[in-house]
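Recap for those who missed Tuesday's class. We walked through two folding examples back to back. For each one, the amino acid string is listed first and its predicted structure tokens come directly after. Nothing is annotated here on purpose, so try labeling regions yourself before you check the end of the notes.
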Amino acid sequence: MNLIEKIIANHSKYESVKPCDIVDIEIDARAARDFGGPNVVKTMIEKDLSIDNPSKTFFTFDTNPTGSDQKYAVNQQIVRVWARNNGVKVYDIDNGIGTHTMINEGIIVPGSTAVTTDSHANILGAIGAFGQGMGDQDIAAAFNSGKVWFKVPESIKLIINGLAPDNVSAKDIVLNLLNKFGANTLLGYSVELYGELVDKLSLSDRITIASMGTEMGVIILLFPPNDAIMAFAEKACGRKLEKIAADKDAIYAQTIEIDATQFVPMVSRPGAPHDTIAIPEQAKIKIDSAFVGSCTNGRIEDMREVARILKNRKVAPGVVLKIVPSTDDVWRQAMDEGLFTIFKDAGALISNAGCAGCAAGQVGQNGPGEVTISTGNRNFLGKQGKGSVYLSSPASAAASALAGYITDEHNIPEVPLTFHPEEKLAKMQKELLDKSTDKKPINIEGRVWYIKEDNIDTDMIFHNRYIAITDIAEMGQYTFDNLKGYEDFAKKAKSGDIVVVTKNFGSGSSRQQAVDCFKSIGIQAIIAESFGAIYERNAINAAFPIMTYQSITDLHLVDGDLINVNFETGLIENKTKDTQINATPFYEVQMEIYQQGGLF
């Protein structure tokens, strides 16, 4: 058997397994984070599930270690209370990234298995362990039974020949692999890494590379543990371990060889981790900010590398550098070694340990028009904020922060590149004002929800317990959940539906969410006999279509009818019943605001 097959077989009832076998696997560590953890708790309570083994069950609060977001703070407390009552350990907000804790504390050792709500749980492949990110129900099942079912993947043997040039870091190595394989060439495979370069990689290097297996589409990047890794793991767990290795006659779907001597320092361009290029020497891509941290590059070795480059230097004017250690141990070590003094003297911001930039709302986010160079593992649009994110090594991120543009440590200018104020303003304005010039439709067609109830107020539409939510994408799920008989509206509504109601729709508070929640789930328009005055203004100013009618009786309307609405003429046609009425068309100001996409 190869490495993944051997690990799975060792944790199943079978002596051997092969690709496509579906088996139950005993899980050595079952964890959930503050992101996903509350839903695991909810499932455990709703299904009345017990815990198989509390000593193997954990929570890690790493996505929002400051608890600075109201919703996260509430969710963390829900988890804490449940964990206390069930004897489950919580690695709280003072700890850092959970997968690193599993490695550092010997919870997971070579050959072990772990599942967590972290999609980068396959980082555990760095020590030759099986780690998988899974959904809330899978994790609850693991809490309850100690096992999960899993389909044995096919394996690829990747041999990296030669050594990389001195200026190529572990992050550069994985960016070069992404350049070669993209996001789906190795999709669904377990990939074992071998070769002279692999043998020389430190634990930190292996973690950096393994953490981006998700971005390559692989099940896991597995590093067979060498003597140094075994010694580290034995010290961490306090016991003697048996080294796990693939059999000499192991079967692989493919064996691929690549040449490390051709690797170069790289960056990923915004939007796709696999869209990698060599760091441009001529084009000076200006940056507004730099971020060092994440499960990919937040270890003490990364901190030292950044400090080496920043020492006795200053971050370029107009550039913000944010540094977040991966764990509290790394934070303390960096402070004890004097690295924090170097960071602060250079003009950097230091935060407490955790995921940071990868978790919305935490240190490392950026704004519209902002260009960031980041040591994270993902740069999907919106993942780290509203701006653009380039991925790089810690050395390149630090060098770029000093230069004011994307570069490597061997090309840091004596005088940094600076912004002209109007240049920054123009860039931000372009991002904020970037919108289509196409005219919006004045004629729409959709399925009807006919709600025959007067005085539907804003608490019925969007209850005040949700008013802390500001992201429109999150609002839709709560639409009408306080309106009797329509609590499941958000689950049943389809994009393109049209809501028809009676008198005084939207009375009550001034909350904008009562309008935006409908936009969130794709409701095309609301038609009412009358609207609450504030609600009417909010809807019009948000370019959300609303219309009024005097009488709707002649439409003979029922739920599910298909209607056509013309905002310009006011004509409403029931296509299902072949009936029509004349409602009040958009007035001039309403149409103008609608066509320009909002009041501003």
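Example two. Treat it independently of the first, because the proteins are unrelated.
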Amino acid sequence: MPDIPRAVLSEHFQERMEGKRLRAAVFLTYQFDPGFFEQEVLPVLFDIAVSHAVAIRLVQLEDAIRSMPGQIAVYYDAHGLVSGDAGSSRLDIRRIPIRHKTGIFHPKNVLLLVEDAEADDEGNRPQSLLVASMSANLTRSGWWENVEVCHVEELASGDKTRLRDDILSLLRLVRQKSPAATDHAALEAIARFVSSTDQRTHRSTEGGLHTHLYAGTSSFPDFLEEVAGSRLRGMHLEIISPYFDAASESRPLQELLDRFQPKETRVLLPRSATDEVTCSPQLFDAIAAISGVSWGRLPKDVLQLGRSEDAGKRFVHAKVYRFFSQSPKREYVFVGSVNMTSAAHQNGGNVETGFLVEVEPQRRPEFWLDSDARERPQFTSEPDSEAATATGTRLLLKYHWDSSIAEAWWDHTAESPILRIEARGRVVGNVGPLPPRGWVQLDPAFATALADVLRETSFILVHGEADEPATGLVQEEGMSHKPSLLFHLSVADILRYWSLLTAEQRVAFLEAHAPEVALTQQGADLVATVAVKFANDTLFDRFAGVFHAFACLERCVDEALGQAGNEKEAVYRLFGKKYDSLGSLLDRVLKEEGAGDDVDRYVMMLCARQVRRESEKRWPEFWADHRDDARELDQLLEQTSAIRARIEAGQTGDMAGFLDWFERWFLSRAKAVAEEDA
């Protein structure tokens, strides 16, 4: 039996993330299912036990994302959007479409900037970068169903590596192909880290080839020749690819044979789930007729969806080019996105990526593919390609939740027609005509309608661009100010939530307080809806509990702006519109939604004023950078006077004088007594 390495993709990433904490992430993909990505891929990157209920899981992930210092960005082919069963995107993730003029944007990479979860003896958290090259798209089939391939490299700060320049080149290419004025914060954070490493000048050390990244800056055969040409010549060659040119011969295969003169070559015969061959009969015959080349298939146990005999087969979507010799034992494997097509192999075709890795075989290497020289197979009439379709749109819409502004970008050299925008069967409005390749601010009425739609979905249909409506994904900015879709907590519940110490306590709290609609969605039947019990109202619960909650809020903001270096977390906590943001609490206090009597409301408003004042003393630059948000918060806090006036009106004596004295001492932070003064 061939020794084929195997792992579950999600579990492999979980293992690589063990003991690490995410700081920033960039994903490159051709096909992108935003709902599946958020609900099933993102949880792999965070050390949290997510709820089975999808709605609550999204709230947990929202909290996890805002607690990381950097951003998460997905760069995808504009024609590769997949509207799967999981729905649309809902989280604070940059979703950036790429239009590649000479082919498709086809890389499949994951770049994770991480730090150690535990600080060392000096209080530092060493950082590293996980770089994955794989064949899997960010879709359900890519991560759960297909046979895919993946290789992960890890770079530490200051490392010497052959990957430095190629990673930076790839990041520059991605940036160049993105729409203007795109927020590349995640990409820039990773580029800064990669720049801290040193580029190795030699391709190998002590006879061992260093791992190299193919970043699509040359043809694929030229890359192999430049990096390891003399090493690869005369070896056995094995090719696994699901897609070939729609032609009577394979020019990519012939070029590999001419360059590297392999002793024997086996090529995976691409088959559908029903075992029909997906290449043309002419191509099948042409490759079978080449001397030293044969078609092959993977072992049955690799292809089966389950252990039972009647289990279905998995589609082979992996892309592998494997060179090996048996004497001496040597093996070189290229894994990534490169299919057996001219667009993938030639310079100026698709954007492709992959790793060339030298493997140290434990025993004599053998072919993974069994010879598939049986009777002539059945051929399918289904098209055999992964070319871009015309379903994507040239229109990019962007909505800023923090300013209520909508913008449009038309990716064409000519002016756009008038475009009708729909979402979930509702007309949002008309856009255009738009000038070519320039951001245009849309009218407030359209922005309001778009914001209303974004509370349900980020998918849009664009009519008027082509004969059929085109699909797009709205980019959302300022997500801290997007209202929570699930929770509307009372004042007391927000205070209690601030006070919870562990992730497990917060999950139980969210599940207990989730609205009924959240517990009718996928996974909700696995959630035990047990009410969370709190102690009866006491003096401690009424005031000390309030003080404790605000102290927890202040500590969280200080930690975010201090050691964690996470301004985003502080923005969410202080200025956001989420279920547990300070602004949400004050809004409910002023609307008298379960906030007790005026004395309770007055104390809470004073606590908020104290947090605001003390925070600005410690972090003046942060508050200066967020003047507009601070002004909005101050407008809420100014309404303390109305609550105070009601208290004064309901009391006899010099209540105003007492409250002046009370506020002066309440808002003055007590100072620790020095030991020699005690």
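Answers for example two:
DSSP finds 22 helices and 26 strands in the chain.
The longest helix spans residues 539-561.
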